[in-house]
From TrEMBL, chain A:
The chain crosses the membrane at residues 27-45, 52-74, 94-119, 126-146, 174-192, 225-250, 262-287, 299-319. This is Branched-chain amino acid ABC transporter permease. It is a multi-pass membrane protein. It holds the Pfam family BPD_transp_2. It is found in: Cell membrane. Keywords: Cell membrane, Membrane, Transmembrane, Transmembrane helix. It comes from the Bacteria.
UniProtKB/TrEMBL annotation, chain B:
Residues 40-379 form the Leucine-binding protein domain. Belongs to the leucine-binding protein family. Transmembrane segments: none annotated. InterPro entries: BCAA_transport (IPR051010), Leu-bd (IPR028081), Peripla_BP_I (IPR028082). The keyword Transcription does not apply. Keywords: Signal. This is ABC transporter substrate-binding protein. SUPFAM superfamilies: Periplasmic binding protein-like I. It comes from the Bacteria. The keyword Transport does not apply. It comes from Actinoallomurus spadix.
């Protein structure tokens, strides 16, 4: 199922590149997104805004794998959580400003990702998902058993939030948001660069037709490993910011449910779109926050139902569907005699 | 140290700005209150394994304390607008951490009460310390709250693992069960309980033959029981709590160990556990109880009120929450403000009695609340005269003996 969705989206992407009117629209989108990111802590409770931003980068990082490389990783909590712990430990023991700790966490996540990626990319499809899930669980149990370092069930408590002695950032969540946002935006920019670089094009080629990419001389496994490690690094950036924001690292960050949540966010927003991750994170985190403060227990029930509805009604995810509709409309406007069928699966031939 | 001063300064400035923005509050009662009102928040398990023991019942108990405060002071009360709010932490430390931050910042809570599950309580204690707001823990047992991880704004009201171990471990050993096997859930509470029990048992001249960790939560205890029984101990001490304890006791009773003359001692037992499993399953079990609803006329009268409100008899955690909220309100009344430092000053060192605290003292040095506790025995089914009539109080353990001394706590604020 994932496969077919992936393929359709890729066509949409290619279509967008060919239509070429995307440039101006992209700037408008970017400006809107930036304004929304800056306005967010005015509109929602700042720690929740921080969660949305961190989850958005997490989903985008995962989308590099799911959407652009065709690898469904079900063990990304390993990188999110291990970076969170490493960031927390660095911040606690060395008293460095938090961005340094976050970068340290992200580097650690990449180092951890290297052997995992090397072993996992030998399989694809559901087997890849299961292997990454197994690695994720292994990391979880290391975190659980090594309680001298991680605090086990108690978690890593009282992680400090140092920022060059600027008191407002260190104590007020509102100002902390603006201090941490650049790190996340940088991560998102990096993700955008990765998927739009020649390297990213190779990833798409591998996703769409692995044997052909191999026949063209690309070292498929190497590309997959690099994509995996880069994705883990960006995940680590997000996880580190999350840890500093909460001042606390719990075992949940390593738990497989966290991997599941981010897969859900990515699919909900629409895979292979990057923007979808942001939209998905906003919806899921806001929904969870709204339900939690309304005193309703069945958060998972509601998010699960929403997920099922989205999969049934919007096969491309919310962003993917809107994007697709927009393209179809554009297509019809520019060449009114064409039918929608032409515009859809194959796209115009050059 | 330096950063602390700056932080305090910033907090004071923020406070002043807030007060300015609020125009000083209604001022009708002459007190100095943020936003013109006092907010008490109950953070506990509203849906999981500890729901019955504290849960919504504790929220009710806190509301009863507010009603009593209003009735007692009437127009002389320093604050009229008192709000009670609650949140569910699902026994997870990360959720407790986020919720505590939200309660202090978003809901303007002046105090957080209850918080079962030791790991969650430790997270809330850190938030209390960072926000300079009060936290009175009632339902979590770890000695760290008022020991190594103590802070100025955190109080431990009802009990701790030292008290449970000291009562049960010492008494059972002295009564002749010298050789112990311990079975404990492998997380903060179980680990802390095992440490405390081992110390108490050795202190009373007994030996611990083995301590067996189990996953938490867990359904099947058969293998652990067989392993514990293999060394032929006099008694097996179980540190399981809530739903796990119920499974453990059922399986112990079915295992045939009882017939071999091996007793079962329970680390932490709540009346709600006895109620859900039935007295016959527990009959004769000795345990330490901080409070029992049917001890005297006063506790019984309060329990009647509680039952009228909720339909069940109160556990000691319910009564503890009532007592904590009541003493907090009294301290606010004396301090005439909701400012945490002033209220902490009024609470610390206070000696008091209420329906829950008998010979109580809020110890200034580590903020552990010491009070008389009780060694209880579960009644036989034939002795039960009414619903919830489950316990015989065997002896009273005086406050000074029941809890660790301030030196033993190892707290430095």
């Amino acid at each position: 199922m994932t496969q077919s969705v992936v393929r359709q989206t890729s066509v949409t992407e290619a279509h967008a590149a060919i239509v070429g009117s995307g440039s101006r629209r992209r700037w408008i989108l970017l400006a809107t997104g930036l304004v929304a990111a800056l306005a967010l802590p005015w509109l929602v409770y700042p720690p929740v805004a921080m969660d949305i931003a961190a989850m958005a980068l997490f989903a985008i990082a995962l989308d590099i794998l799911i959407g652009y490389t065709g690898l469904l990783s079900f063990g990304h909590s390993a990188f999110w959580g291990s970076s969170a712990y490493m960031t927390g430990l660095i911040a606690t023991h060395y008293g460095v400003p938090f961005p340094v700790a976050v970068v340290g966490g992200a580097v650690f996540a990449m180092v951890l990702a290297l052997p995992i990626a090397y072993l996992s990319v030998r399989r694809s499809g559901i087997y890849f998902a299961m292997v990454t899930l197994a690695f994720g669980q292994m990391v979880y149990f290391v975190g659980y058993q090594w309680s001298g370092l991680t605090g086990g069930e108690n978690g890593l408590q009282g992680v400090p939030r140092r920022f060059f002695g600027i008191e407002l950032v260190e104590t007020e969540s509102f100002y902390f948001y603006y201090a941490a946002l650049p790190i996340l935006l940088l991560g998102m920019w990096a993700a955008w660069r990765i998927v739009h670089s020649p390297f990213g094009r190779v990833l798409v080629a591998i996703r769409d037709n692995t044997p052909r990419a191999r026949a063209l001389g690309y070292d498929v496994e190497k590309y997959k490993v690099i994509a995996f490690v880069l994705s883990a690094g960006l995940t680590g950036l997000a996880g580190g910011v999350f840890a500093i924001s909460h001042g606390f690292v719990a075992l949940t960050t390593l738990h497989w449910t966290t991997s599941g949540e981010v897969v859900l966010i990515t699919l909900l927003g629409g895979i292979g779109t990057l923007w979808g991750g942001i939209l998905g994170a906003f919806l899921v985190v806001m929904l969870a926050d709204y339900l939690a403060s309304s005193g309703f227990d069945g958060i998972d029930l509601v998010t699960g139902t929403v997920f099922v509805l989205v999969v049934l009604l919007f096969r491309r995810g919310i962003w993917g569907t809107v994007h697709h509709q927009w393209l179809t409309w554009l297509q019809r406007r520019t060449s009114p005699r064409r039918t929608q069928a032409d515009a859809d699966p194959a796209g115009p031939r050059p | 140290m330096k950063s602390m001063h700056i932080r305090a300064g910033a907090a004071a400035m923020t406070g002043a700005l807030l007060l300015g923005a609020c125009g000083g509050g209604p001022g009708a009662s002459g007190g100095d209150f943020t936003g013109g009102k006092l907010v008490l928040a109950v953070l506990n398990d509203q849906s999981g394994v500890y729901k019955d023991a504290s849960g919504p019942g504790s929220v009710k108990a806190v509301k009863m304390a507010v009603a009593d405060y209003k009735k007692k002071y009437g127009d002389a009360a320093v604050v009229d607008d008192i709000e009670v709010t609650s949140a569910d932490h699902q026994n997870k430390p990360d959720i407790a951490n986020t919720k505590a931050q939200e309660l202090y910042e978003r809901k303007g809570a002046d105090i957080i009460l209850d918080v079962p599950t030791s790991s969650a309580a430790l997270a809330v204690a850190t938030q209390a310390k960072n926000h300079h707001k009060l936290f009175i823990d009632v339902s979590a047992a770890t000695t760290q709250l008022t020991g190594a991880r103590c802070n100025k704004y955190t109080f431990q009201w009802a009990y701790d693992t030292y008290m449970l171990a000291n009562g049960t471990g010492t008494t059972v050993t002295e009564n002749g069960d010298k050789n112990w096997q311990l079975i404990y859930p492998d997380y903060e509470f179980g680990q802390d309980m095992t440490k405390s029990f081992t110390k108490a048992i050795k202190g009373a001249g007994g030996t611990v033959q083995g301590a067996i960790p189990t996953p938490f939560p867990n359904d099947n205890f058969a293998t652990f029981l067989t392993k514990a029984g293999s060394t032929k101990p006099d008694v097996i001490g179980t540190m399981q709590a809530g739903g796990d304890l119920i499974n453990m006791v059922k399986q112990f009773n079915a295992s045939g160990l009882k017939e071999k003359g091996i007793d079962l001692a329970v680390g932490l037992m709540l009346i709600t556990d006895i109620h859900s499993l039935g007295v016959d399953q527990f009959a004769g079990t000795m345990f330490t109880d901080p409070w029992y609803w049917n001890m005297d006329k006063e506790t019984r009268a309060w329990a009647d009120r509680f039952q009228h409100e909720t339909g069940t008899r109160p556990s000691f955690e319910h009564a503890g929450n009532y007592s904590a909220a009541l003493q907090y309100l009294e301290a606010v009344q004396r301090a005439k403000t909701d400012k945490a430092d002033a209220v902490v000053g009024e609470l610390a060192g206070k000696k008091t009695n209420d329906v829950f605290l008998h010979n109580g003292e809020i110890r200034a040095k580590d903020h552990l609340v010491i009070h008389d506790t009780y060694l209880a025995r579960v009644k036989k089914p034939s002795q039960v005269k009414e619903d919830w009539d489950y316990e015989d109080i065997v002896t009273t353990i005086p406050a000074a003996k029941a809890f660790p001394t301030a030196e033993e706590s190892g707290c430095s604020m």
